[in-house]
Design a protein that fits this description.
The complex is a heterodimer.
Chain A lengths: L17 H17 L3 H12 L4 H8 L5 H40 L18 H14 L4 E2 L5 E3 H4 L10 H5 L12 E3 L4 H10 L4 E10 L11 E11 L4 H16 L5 E8 L2 E10 L8 E2 L2 E2 L8 E10 L1 H6 L8 E8 H9 L6 H4 L2 H5 L6
Parallel strand pairs in A: 1-4
Antiparallel strand pairs in A: 2-3, 4-5, 5-11, 6-7, 7-10, 8-9, 10-11
Chain B lengths: L1 E3 H7 L8 H11 L2 E7 L8 E13 L5 E8 L10 E5 L9 E5 L4 E2 L3 E2 L3 E3 L2 E3 L2 E2 L16 E2 L10 H4 L5 E6 L10 H12 L21 E3 L7 E8 L9 H9 L7 H13 L4 E4 L7 E5 L5 E3 L5 E3 L5 E5 L2 E5 L3 E2 L12 E7 L2 H10 L5 H8 L6 H16 L2 E10 L7 E4 L2 H6 L5 H10 L3 E4 L3 E5 L10 H12 L19 H15 L3 E2 L5 E2 L1 H6 L12 E2 L10 E2 L4 H13 L4 E9 L20 H9 L6 E12 L8 E2 L2 H15 L4 E5 L4 E11 L2 E9 L1 H7 L6 E6 H6 L16 E10 L4 H12 L3 E10 L8 E10 L8 H19 L2 E2 L2
Parallel strand pairs in B: 14-17, 28-32
Antiparallel strand pairs in B: 1-13, 2-13, 3-4, 3-6, 4-5, 6-11, 6-12, 7-8, 9-10, 15-23, 15-24, 16-23, 17-20, 18-19, 20-21, 21-22, 25-27, 26-27, 29-31, 30-31, 32-33, 33-34, 33-38, 35-36, 36-37, 37-38, 39-41, 39-42, 40-41
The chains are: A alpha+beta, B alpha+beta.
The complex binds zinc ion.
Chain lengths: 368, 827
């Protein structure tokens, strides 16, 4: 730094000569243009625009000029410095852009690298399937009812018009708990949940009951001693078989797609009278029985799939459960969740559902 | 139930163009479900013709066998009219016999293609068939020799052998026992086509008289009616006619002897089971009564049976000679020397039949019908039909004595309003249709203005209630006509909170990389031992099953871990390098509050009765279990993988707490099957609801899992019950935060939770959060010491804290930690 020039000698003040100023400016602009990167430019900035740069030094000399010369010199240097700063800023911008571009290129990674540090989890298709079914009914205003798996014999059988000598009691080979005099069974169907609902609620009742049930079946590709059922129960004034058909047709269409409906065949269930088997239009061949010229495997060429049982709730059941059978009628239906999923998802062997193999379950993700 | 189509058509005049497929479709729609149609000619393709053996030359072979080189007249069936040369290995025929010949180009069952071929030095052009080769039976002793009048050579043999027959197998529902007979099936076929029907049980029967075999019924409830007829001089060697044997076989019954075959045939025809006694072995009058406890009987199958007071027995002077309606006894069994037959046709109480069959584990064709209900009115007709067939084919004469004791039970009357079928089915069914259809199923009707009273026919013991009649009317109108109408909209309340929370738990765990499994909830001592549970562990007190699948696993499980640990090992065994599994499921703990009552069903149990019933049920909480085994994080380009451990297990429980909005406390504990030093008890508001941590090394070894595998089991019901119904919004300060970090040296066995709790309490209300960020041990500290570093964050709701306030709170926190846990602040 220098103070005011006390040894004033106008002849010596060469930097203020116009050609010198221009030369300094041109040298600066040339150096700026030549700066190859931001580091170069930083040095150029020090050399040509820093405190010790020719133009800065010249500027400092202005004060020493005779007053009449100051204005002109000031203007000249100011213009030169302005030009240099402008060039610096422009070059800075260009070099920064170049730098950024280069950095982004350098930072390129292989985005196809695996990212599965923690392997994915999944929910069981029986769970998500039960929820799917529950949601279809909840959307119709129904509720989801549940009950215990170890159930009172009276609720599992008697209340449902399955008396002690009813042949169905042996048909559904039942797991009994010890001692048998305690009259407790592993529920053979989710129907006791329906009985519980009727015993504890006043109509109108619209409930769907998904759950685990037990029968002493062999364990093979299509049978399991532990399986899952969903049953539905509607009790209201004026309920008819037509409402049952409407509900099951809606359920079928929601579960399997528009156009998939049901048909009824007369059948027998103690819980219902009249009773029907429910068949479903095969959603693979859409009822034609053939697929690509061959017999459809899903329905074995029949165009229909056996889906479950249903009927009008037997007034004897209403009586046992305290529902006014003069005022209300009801319908009930039931089908296997496992079986429904087997044909909906094309699962060949029922046992895959209970093996716990993560390759099976993760294939379904968390939604069916 | 298997029914040959021609037998059905014997009793119903179906239109000629009705195919078996048409018929079964209609019957299925009426409720007799088609199981299968078997064609007797399945697998056979012609030409299959009658041949007449012209010559046969026995030719001994080097292998010791003798073959016959035959020429057979097959008429024009071979296109030339010349005799056909055929090699045959059988010897049970002679020149002049009529035989069954399959010519080249034909196919036998098993896709056995017939062609002319060189064999034993001859060109054999076809084959003379045995019954077995045609799939008609097991008889392979020789070829079929047809009766001399079977047909001219060259006649198509399909008709001659009855191979055009189609046998329909129906699945008969338990309420439709009447369809366990040709009589009943034909009745349904007549209903389906509105075709004329001839009842095979509608026959003139001789009037009862006193000359018959003496019968006394002591229990008219168990046996309302007993008919006895006698055939004398019967030829026990008389063969069963071919047509009858064929029909029995087609219906799935094995021909045995004429006497037995006739009773079976009449049972199939009418539905009424019949029993035959060797009349010469009977001693004195027949008496029907209930057995006394402990009496015994050796039944026809050779089994010695100990009887109970509920069993109905047939006795004579010698004692018990049969288990009424279920199975006869050995002592009066018909044999190959029986010439005098006593025919029993009796009506039995269905419930007694069911109980006796179940008690003695006897499942028979007769029992199946008797326990579901047989038409009582046809009892004399069925006996008469047996007498007719026995005398027709076995010689002998019908004894003039006809015993009929008791009467057919009356049917109840059922009154319904005409519009009930329409109201229940939702179909347009007018009064006239209701009347027509009920009459069509055999009901006798009394018609009033608005109601009608129906007396169901005797063959329909299943019709008892108004809605039973609705089903009859509706199935004839046709279930296909039921319209599809959604019920009125219900104001549903959606999923319950618990149902929503359960979904959230599943999604949280799946989101944390866990895969849900469903295992069978059965358990045994082996699993409890593998878990290392002490002998008095409460988990060993189980609800036991009377009839478990396996005696190794006789109980409903008290813990989800065995199933889960096995599934984990299975996955690792199948090549997985790590597995995180979870299961939510019911476990059961027995309660000792007495048996669950059995109430009547005519009205609802009272609230007290219901409560008594419900409290007898075992405790059945919903549990959640997790197992983490092997690699929890994979190795990769990012670096090393990481094995699962205790912290992952406890972390998942804490994560669930966060998801469900509850504060879970973790307390150090020891409990099998966990590692005693790496087990956390998890609590809510001081109450334990489960455990998490590393599994005991012995448990890992017992289940074949890698060391350090970790597990969780909690009472999910408890956790969900303790969530808040409504979560209040947070209220936080916007003033600046003050930070203080402290490092405390404590004894190695002091838990971080205890230190943290002391710090939290000591710091007071100004503390916003506290977090342990480092645990440090060193030689310098000593093996029995550790240093815990906590980040304390302070903030006031209404002001900026001064340094003094913050320092004061920090010092108070450290002081309380020092007092409670012996903590010393590191400088
Ligand atoms: Zn199909």
């Amino acid at each position: 730094m220098s103070g005011p020039n006390t040894d004033y000698d106008p002849v010596e003040v060469t930097p203020l000569k116009p050609e010198e100023v221009e030369a300094a400016r041109d040298a600066a602009v040339a150096a700026i243009a030549a700066a190859a990167d931001l580091a170069d430019l930083k040095q150029v900035r020090i050399d040509h625009a820093g405190d010790r740069s020719p133009l800065a030094l010249a500027n400092r000399e202005i004060g020493a000029l005779p007053p009449q010369a100051r204005k002109e010199a000031g203007q000249r240097i100011g213009q030169a410095r302005g030009a240099v700063n402008q060039a610096l800023a422009a070059r800075q911008e260009v070099l920064e852009a170049e730098h950024e571009e280069r950095m982004l290129v350098e930072e390129t990674v292989d985005v196809t690298l695996p990212t599965d540090r923690v392997p994915a989890g999944a929910r069981h298709p029986i769970t998500t399937g039960s929820e799917l079914i529950a949601d279809i009914f909840v959307a119709m205003g129904w509720e989801v009812a549940e009950g215990p798996v170890i159930e009172a014999e009276w609720l599992n059988f008697d209340a449902l018009n399955l008396g002690p000598d009813h042949p169905a009691r042996t048909m559904q080979d039942t797991f009994w708990t010890e001692p048998a005099e305690n009259h407790l069974v592993l529920r053979t169907h989710t129907s006791p949940v329906q009985a519980r609902t009727m015993l504890t609620r006043q109509p109108p009742i619209y409930v769907v009951c998904p759950g685990r049930v037990f029968r002493t079946d062999e364990y093979d590709a299509t049978h399991s001693p532990v399986f899952h059922q969903v049953e539905g129960l509607a009790i209201d004034e004026g309920i008819t078989m037509a409402n049952l058909k409407g509900t099951l047709d809606h359920f079928a269409a929601q579960m399997f797609g528009e156009g998939i409906s049901t048909r009824f065949r007369p059948s027998y269930f103690p819980f219902t009278e009249p009773s029907a088997e429910v068949d479903l239009v095969c959603f693979v061949c859409r009822g034609s029985g053939t697929l690509d010229g061959a017999s459809c495997r899903t329905c074995r060429g029949e165009g229909w799939i056996e889906w479950g049982g249903c009927g009008v709730v037997n007034p004897r059941v209403l009586a046992a459960c305290g529902v006014d059978a003069e005022r209300y009628t009801g319908f009930a239906f039931g089908m296997g969740i496992d079986r429904t999923l087997m044909f909906r998802q094309g699962i060949e062997d029922l046992r895959e559902l209970f093996e716990g193999d993560i390759r099976f379950t993760t294939a379904f993700g968390s939604e069916l | 139930m298997k029914a040959p189509a021609s037998w059905i058509r014997e009793y119903v005049d179906l239109p000629a163009d009705v195919t078996t497929e048409d018929l079964t479709a209609r019957l299925t729609a009426l409720g007799l479900k088609l199981e299968a149609i078997e064609s007797a000619s399945a697998g056979i393709t012609g030409p299959l013709v009658v041949g007449k053996v012209l010559t046969m030359e026995p030719e001994p072979q080097k292998n010791g066998k003798t073959i016959n080189w035959c020429t057979v007249d097959v008429g024009d069936a071979n296109g030339t009219g010349e005799p056909q040369g055929i090699v045959c290995g059988a010897h049970n025929f002679a020149p002049g016999d009529l035989v069954v010949v399959i010519l080249p180009g034909g196919v036998l069952p098993g896709n056995f293609q017939i062609s002319a071929r060189k064999t034993y030095g001859h060109l054999s052009a076809g084959m003379i068939c045995s019954a077995r080769e045609l799939g008609l039976g097991e008889d392979h002793d020789g070829i079929i020799v047809l009766p001399a009048d079977a047909g001219a050579p060259g006649t198509d043999a399909f008709d001659v052998l009855g191979l055009r027959e189609e046998v329909i197998e129906f699945e008969i529902n338990p309420d439709r026992a009447y369809a366990l007979s040709l009589r009943g099936i034909a009745r349904e076929a007549a209903l389906a086509y509105d075709a004329p029907y001839r009842d095979p049980a509608d026959r003139d029967v001789p009037s009862p008289n006193d000359a018959g075999y003496p019968v006394v019924i002591d229990d008219p409830v168990g046996c309302p009616m007993f008919v006895a007829r006698k055939v004398t001089g019967f030829d026990p060697a008389a063969p069963t006619p071919d047509w009858m044997a064929t029909r029995l076989q087609q219906a799935g019954m094995r021909p045995i002897s004429l006497a037995v075959d006739v009773t079976n045939y009449v049972m199939l025809e009418t539905g009424r089971p019949i029993h035959g006694y060797d009349a010469d072995k009977l001693q004195g009058p027949i008496r029907v009564r209930r057995a006394t406890e402990g009496e015994t009987l050796t039944t026809l199958d050779g089994a010695l049976r100990t009887l109970s007071t509920e069993d109905l027995v047939v006795t004579d002077d010698s004692g018990i000679i049969g288990l009424g309606g279920v199975m006869g006894g050995e002592t009066t069994e018909m044999s190959e020397t029986t010439t005098n037959v006593l025919v029993e046709a009796a009506h039995w109480d269905a419930t007694s039949m069911f109980r006796t069959g179940k008690r003695h584990r006897i499942s028979s064709e007769a029992g199946k019908r008797n326990e579901r209900g047989v038409d009582p009115v046809i009892t004399p007709a069925a006996a008469d039909r047996v007498v007719e067939l026995l005398t027709t084919y076995g010689g002998g004469t019908a004894d003039p004595g006809v015993t009929v004791v008791g009467t057919a039970p009356e049917r109840p009357e059922i009154t319904i309003s005409y519009d009930l079928p329409a109201r229940v089915s939702g179909m347009d069914i007018d009064a006239a249709t209701t009347v027509t259809n009920l009459e069509a199923v055999g009901c006798a009707l009394v018609k009033e203005d608005t109601t009608l009273t129906a007396t169901p026919p005797p063959w329909r013991p299943d019709l008892n209630d108004p809605f039973d009649l609705v089903e009859e009317v509706a199935r004839i109108v046709g279930y296909d006509n039921v319209p599809s109408v959604l019920p009125r909209e219900a104001a549903g309340r959606g999923l319950t909170r618990e149902q929503r929370l359960r979904r959230r738990v599943g999604r949280t765990l799946a989101g944390a990389g866990c895969v849900e499994v469903i295992s069978f909830p059965f358990v045994g001592d082996a699993a409890f031992d593998a878990l290392g549970l002490p002998a008095d562990d409460p988990l060993r007190t189980t609800v036991r099953l009377a009839n478990p699948l396996s005696s190794e696993e006789p109980s409903y499980t008290t813990t989800l871990l065995p199933g889960l640990l096995k599934a984990a090992a299975r996955n690792l065994g199948r090549g997985a390098s790590g597995v995180s599994l979870f299961e939510t499921g019911t476990v059961a703990f027995p309660v000792d509050r007495g048996p669950a009552p059995i109430y009547g069903v005519d009205w609802r149990p009272s609230e007290d009765e219901l409560a008594k019933l419900l409290e007898a049920l075992p405790e059945q909480p919903l549990h959640l279990a997790v197992v983490l085994a092997g690699e929890r994080e994979r190795a990769g380009w990012w670096g090393e993988g990481r094995e699962a451990g205790w912290a992952d297990a406890i972390g998942l429980v804490r994560r669930l707490g966060t998801e469900l909005g509850v504060e879970i406390e973790v307390v150090s504990t020891s409990r099998a099957p966990w590692h005693p030093g790496r087990c956390a008890q998890v609590r809510l508001a001081g109450v334990e609801f489960g455990h998490a941590g590393e599994l005991h090394p012995k448990v890992c070894a017992a289940f074949g899992l890698p060391a350090r595998s970790a597990a969780v089991e909690i009472d999910l019901d408890f956790l969900m019950r303790h969530t808040r119904d409504v979560t209040p919004g947070p209220d936080f300060s916007t003033y600046p935060q003050a930070k203080e970090d402290v490092a405390l040296v404590v004894a190695a066995d002091v838990t971080a939770a205890d230190v943290e709790a002391a710090l939290r309490e000591g710091a007071g209300d100004l503390l916003e959060s506290i977090r342990l960020f480092d645990v440090y041990t060193s030689e310098q500290l000593g093996a029995d010491k550790k240093s815990l570093a906590f980040a304390l964050r302070f903030r006031a709701p209404d002001r900026t804290l001064t340094e003094e306030e913050t320092a004061g709170a920090r010092d108070a926190a450290v002081a309380l930690a020092a007092e409670r846990t012996g903590a010393v602040q590191r400088s």
